[in-house]
Specification:
8-stranded parallel beta sheet, globular, TIM Barrel
């Protein structure tokens, strides 16, 4: 692979994780596949393959091999840990990750401690996704190497505290001694410069990378993101204390209405089925089900390559940092 000389922003995160730019691709269900992850990593960021998107641990190994054929740069794997009556075979997924030679894992959804020993034994670095300072501090105590702190603006599950990134990021960096990746609401270099100013060591972008050429979602979804504003999301499951931010469509609005009227999860179970959301991404039917997207869609206006997003974000951040520095008059 050839590498072109370009401006680099070095932080404790890039140094510790062996990447060129402090830009991480979110580990998104149905989205974090080989082509996207490899494109982000090849451009100097950290691409993430989503483990549970693959139906079996063996399929995950094949997906990692496909990505490795596209880049020799560092790759990560997302392993989301969620309580379930019939949980996935996490032990087998962990073993697959290790056997495939992956040395960076993003955990999310629940306490990563049960997974730490095996990963640490094999030299795997852990980034844990959190939505509060208290959870980030606990993750640090159990030995993760970095945290990704999700502000209220984010797609997916923002927690129940409703703290936006402008407060949450510096609140976290003030108390943590490990690298902090700012997540939720980032789509460009202005956001990266702001995150660095707030004390973060990089940014995580999900929605922005979902709307790129290499993203495996249907073009109709990407075009919807380009045309949407920051107001075009819904917060579902709020009365159930399991808030999730998704695109505003007829399905998500119906879910909000049913639960606001006193409904329970069984009343919306069929509406929020994962198979329906997958149909949105694969077939482009925007009303087929619920699908995750962040408020940051209001800042996304094109569908570039993932590599262009990485390079452009860093270049814009450098321009912003230089611009701000130029405002200083010490005379």
């Amino acid at each position: 692979m050839t590498t072109t000389l370009e401006t680099q922003i070095s932080t404790p995160f890039t140094t510790e994780f062996g990447i060129r730019h402090p830009v991480v691709q979110g580990g998104m269900m149905w989205v974090g596949r080989a082509e996207l992850a490899a494109a982000v990593s090849e451009a100097g960021g950290l691409g993430i393959i989503t483990a549970l998107t693959q139906p079996t641990p063996a399929d995950l190994v094949k997906e990692i091999e496909r990505a490795r054929a596209l880049t020799d740069k560092p790759l990560g794997v997302n392993l989301t840990i969620l309580p379930s009556i019939t949980p996935p075979p996490y032990d087998e997924y962990r073993r697959a990750i290790i056997d495939a030679g992956i040395t960076i894992v993003e955990t999310a959804g629940a306490n990563p401690e049960p997974h730490m020993e095996m990963f640490k034994e094999h030299g795997v670095k852990i980034i844990h996704k959190c939505t509060s300072v208290r959870h980030a501090l606990k993750a640090q105590r159990v030995g993760v190497d970095a945290v990704s702190i999700d502000g209220f603006e984010c797609a997916g599950h923002p927690g129940e505290d409703d703290v936006p990134g402008l407060v949450l990021i510096p609140a976290a960096t003030e108390k943590l001694s490990i690298p902090v990746i700012a997540s939720g609401g980032f789509a460009n270099g202005q956001g990266l410069a702001a995150a660095l100013a707030l004390g973060a060591d990089g940014i995580n972008m999900g929605t922005r990378f979902m709307c790129t050429e290499e993203s495996p979602v249907a073009h109709e979804v990407k075009q919807c993101i380009v045309e949407a504003t920051e107001r075009d999301t819904e917060l579902i499951f709020r009365p159930l204390k399991n808030t999730a931010r998704v695109a505003s469509n007829s399905v998500s609005r119906e879910v909000v209405s049913i639960l606001a009227a006193g409904g329970e999860f069984p009343d919306v179970r069929d509406l929020v089925a994962g198979s329906r959301g997958r149909k949105v991404f694969e077939e482009g039917d925007l009303e087929a089900g619920i699908w995750s997207v962040g408020m940051v869609q209001g800042l996304i206006h094109d569908i570039p390559s993932a590599g262009e997003v990485v390079r452009r974000t860093v270049a814009e951040a450098v321009t912003e940092i230089d611009r701000i520095a130029g405002l200083i008059n010490r005379g």
